Amino acid sequence: MEIKSKIIPAPGCRPDVKSDALRVFEVLRSGGLALVPTEVGYGLMASSTEAIQKAFAAKKRRPGHAQGVIGTYQLHRELHILPDEKLEMVRTLHQDLDMSFAIVAPFRSDHPILQQLTPATLANTTKNGTLGIYIGGGSLLAELGRLNDEAGQLMLGSSANLTGTGQKFRVEDIDQEIKDAADIIVDYGLQRYHIYGGRPSTIVDFDNMKVLRVGSSYELLRERLRKYWDVVLPEDPMFDVSSPRTLEPEEKPKGETTKGSQMVTGVQEAKKGYRQRLLGRFRRSKENY
Fold first, then answer.
1. For the chain, where are the E strands, in sequence order?
2. Is 137 exposed, middle or buried (0-12, 13-18, 19+ CB in 10 A)?
3. Which fold has domain 7-282?
4. Is the omega angle on the peptide bond into residue 253 within 30 degrees of 0, that is, cis?
5. Do 186 and 41 form a contact (C-beta atoms < 8 A)?
6. What is the pTM for the complete model shown?
7. Exposure check for the chain: N or C terminus, fewer CB within 10 A?
8. How would you class 160 by CB atoms within 10 Å of its CB: exposed for 0-12, middle for 13-18, buried for 19 or more?
9. Strand pairing report for 156-159 and 210-213
């Protein structure tokens, strides 16, 4: 009998998205809990009540806490009730501009896939007649989402951290009790949006065009909504993209030259200050809609 490793890829092996996603899908289908990479940090994924409860216990999260659906653009189209122009807006942002974000909108409560949820889980996944679905998040989530869609399996997720401690962008930074709870761990190393200093995903209510949570790549989403649809959302408190995106060297007295090392040091100091401010503001952000 073949014994499969809990952590993939195995030492000395490289990521294989199709194979790795299939392994995760099989764990979810059997009622297990998966720890997987996403662009906004590592997350715990579940498709059964038992796995959801297991994740909550590991995170030391109170019962009844909100949780989100992790899905695909296709699942969003099937579940959400939005006018055509809003659906096209989401499609353009996600498919043409390759953006990842969470969509909140009214939903079809009679859809068969939602019947998999217990009344208590459904209540924790919805709010005031709306449902949140995170789409995107990287190639592994895309392939996993495709497998889930084909099987009619719903996947719920939350960040892989103890409640209130912020996103984790490397497996080695995740608390041991979280890793112990997972039935499979996909380790793809450092994740893309670590540069935002711990921000979770951006959440937008597309029915009312209202930002519910400023998260990773919010400044891009805000700029594109303004540029292509004349939709104006509040400014990002940490990113000012109104001025030209050019770094100019400091003017030096006559006879002196600008040294590359001095410029690099200045940029590093600026980044360090930004990250400290960002962490202070967003570390306590709620993890889920």
1. 7-8, 33-38, 41-46, 68-71, 101-106, 126-127, 130-135, 156-159, 184-186, 203-205, 210-213
2. buried
3. DHBP synthase (3.90.870)
4. no
5. no
6. 0.83
7. N
8. buried
9. unpaired
Identify whether the C-beta of residue 14 lies closer than 8 Å to the C-beta of residue 193.
Answer: no
Q: CA-to-CA distance for 266 and 173, rounded, in angstroms?
A: 28
Distances (CA, A) of 118 to 45, 53, 67, 271: 17, 12, 13, 45
Q: Which residues contact 277 (CB under 8 A, 6 or more apart)?
A: 238
For residue 165, how many C-alpha atoms fall within 13 Å in the half-sphere facing its CB? 14
Q: What is the pLDDT along the chain (289 residues), one digit of tens a residue?
A: 345 789 999 999 999 999 999 999 999 999 999 999 999 999 999 999 999 999 999 998 876 677 899 999 999 999 999 999 999 999 999 999 999 999 999 999 999 999 999 999 999 999 999 999 999 999 999 999 999 999 999 999 999 999 888 899 999 999 999 999 999 999 999 999 898 888 999 999 999 999 999 999 999 999 999 999 999 999 998 877 766 655 555 554 555 444 444 444 444 554 555 555 555 544 444 444 4
Separation between Cα atoms, residue 124 and residue 201, nearest integer Å: 18
If you compute the radius of gyration of the chain from its CA atoms, what whole number of angstroms results? Answer: 21
